[in-house]
Design brief:
alpha+beta, 4-stranded antiparallel sheet, 4 helices, Cyclic Phosphodiesterase, Chain: A, single chain, about 30% helix
């Protein structure tokens, strides 16, 4: 029997040496900065941690089918959540490479399809904050984009995905359990 939980996920985590500018924004605007490391969610919710050993082989096989690729974080976008609530995020490009990676992983664990069940399918994103109010959202997005473009965005090579987990509060900070390499 498979069991999914919101205490685990499969994510793409940028290398630690590029976190600085992202974390600076998240510390100011993201109420989840303590719980989550910078990441692109690929499968969430995911299997309970006790099933990681069981799913590792199929995820490794899926990861072998996707070669490492360069990711560029160059543009801010947002999701609206009704009633004037917004999530601000960086768009990983090329989007098609991210979508292929997510689809390969999901094909290995088809019951973990929540990330692709949204109206527009899977939308790769790296969340950096939450904002209330359309005007505030537009202003913040514009300010951050101008500063981000001036610095030239951020790039890294996606070489692995990570299986992460967290405990119940107060032990609710996600940590990496294991990494799954990409490519053969």
């Amino acid at each position: 029997m498979t069991t999914k939980t919101h205490q685990t996920a499969v994510v793409l985590i940028p290398p630690g040496d590029v976190w600085g500018p992202v974390q600076a924004i998240r510390r100011e605007h993201d109420r989840q900065v303590r719980r989550w490391m910078p990441h692109v969610t690929l499968l969430y919710p995911f299997r309970v941690r006790e099933q990681f050993d069981e799913v590792e082989a199929v995820l490794r096989e899926a990861g072998r089918r996707v070669e490492p690729f360069e990711v560029r974080l160059g543009e801010f976008r947002h999701f609206g959540h009704g009633r004037s609530k917004y999530t601000l995020w960086l768009a990983p490009e090329p989007q098609d490479a991210m979508v292929r990676l997510q689809a390969a992983l999901q094909s290995a664990v088809p019951d973990c399809d929540d990330a692709s069940r949204h109206a527009n399918g899977f939308t790769p994103h790296l969340s950096v904050g939450q904002v209330r109010g359309a005007e505030a959202m537009a202003e913040l997005e514009s300010q951050l984009q101008a500063a981000w473009s001036e610095r030239g965005g951020l790039s890294f090579v996606a070489r692995e995905v990570s299986l992460i987990w967290r405990g119940a509060p107060p032990d609710d900070v996600f940590r990496v359990d294991r990494a799954i390499p990409l490519g053969g």
